[in-house]
Amino acid sequence: MILEVKNLNVSFNGKKLLTDINMSVDTGARHLICGHNGSGKSTLVGAIAGNPTYSVDSGNIIFNGMDVTHDNATTRALSGIFIGSQNVPEIPGLTIISFLKHSIAAHHHFQFGRDLPMGEFLEMLESAREKLNIPSDWLNRSVNVGFSGGERKRIMLLRLLMTKPKLAILDEPDSGADATVKHQIADTIKSMPTTTFIFISHQDDFTQMVAPTNTTTLSNGKVVIE
Question: If phi over 0 gives left and psi between -120 and 50 gives alpha, with beta otherwise, what is residue 85?
Fold first, then answer.
């Protein structure tokens, strides 16, 4: 088991959003979180990833055997939790290649205690870029500036492949993606057996492509017991 959420209660500006959430995620799973709009799905994955917008009032988040309930988002990310959000910011002036270099270098130093050689980074980047068929000229463009919804998803996949996280949380990765990109996302998920996935989706066709191994359903901030 790579993740265990125990009796988690979460609020935002004093309003309770999640009540006594219990969820276990097995290592290597493709775990679907579903429910109607406003049921608490994005709040749950945000709390797991350490989004400071939300306040954890009680309960615990155990990741890879460690209690990360009060760790910040950076510490959780470096420990192996990847978050692919619905709405990603544009960062004018910061190129994709620079963003990836700093991100991957930080992960590498955290894991191995040494700097990442530029040659090794470039090999990783080229391998991931070719796998996703991403044009090389994208790398010198500002992060997410001028990219379509589907193209932003492909940039997310590039970061995912290079980071190789223990746990990847994808909040509606199919949103804004056409059929080709949906297939690419699903294929990428299936090509990473050492990464556990939690994903949110409202689209049956995408869910079928991913073929979830487990499902947790939320309603009004609570887990639906089936």
Answer: beta
* Parallel, antiparallel or unpaired: strands 91-95 and 142-143: antiparallel
Q: What DSSP string runs through 25-69? A: E-TT-EEEEE-STTSSHHHHHHHHHT-TTSEEEEEEEEETTEE-T
Domain 3-223 in CATH 2.30.40.10? The answer is: no
Please name the residue that has the structure tokens 């709009």. Answer: 37
Longest dimension (CA), the chain: 51
Q: What is the pTM of this model?
A: 0.91
What pLDDT, in 10s, does the model give residues 49-62?
999 999 999 999 99
Give residue-wise pLDDT tens across range 18-43: 999 999 999 999 999 999 888 999 99
